[in-house]
Design brief:
Layout (H helix, E strand, L loop, with lengths): L11 E4 L16 E4 L1 H9 L20 E8 L2 E8 L8 H14 L2 H27 L1 H18 L4 H10 L4 H6 L4
Helix pairs in contact: 3-4, 4-5
Length: 181
Amino acid sequence: MCTFPLHTSALLFCITQPKDIYPVLSVSTLNLIPSCGSCNTLKKTLSGENLFIHPYFDEISDYEWLFMKITFNDHGISFDFEVKVPSYVENHQLYEEKLKFQMSELKIFNIYIGKANVFHHSNIGAFILMMDSLGELKFREIIKKYYDDAAKMNKNSFEAAFYRAIYGLKDYKLYFSYNSY
């Protein structure tokens, strides 16, 4: 799994610290992380030190920082993603800056918006059937279980952010009114 977007298979290893600045680290396993070809290529075009979250050294994976927003408008439903590192996390501003840069520059936000649209349209029929047959309370419990299962794997996965946003909706009727299957 690619370390950066966590959405595709990793076929390469990415050097996290620039080898021209830290030549001795270019062969260290701690400086090599799984990466897909797209992220590896994009990352190479960017210059600067410590622009990305390091999966081994930046202790951020224990906290929820990826959030999906659902917006309803005249054109339908839309999804957007944002990074918000909790303020109680040490160095939260630095981590948030790095994550926003990483997610933006590697086009991960765009990938996740596309995935959210596909995921939504692929599942809305099942969501409506669950809501109609089980009621809102049971539907909410099921969505919470889906979120819990996704968060066990990775609190900041696309799936965890998606289910967290669905679970957090105040008005499911509004959500379902924008959809049909």
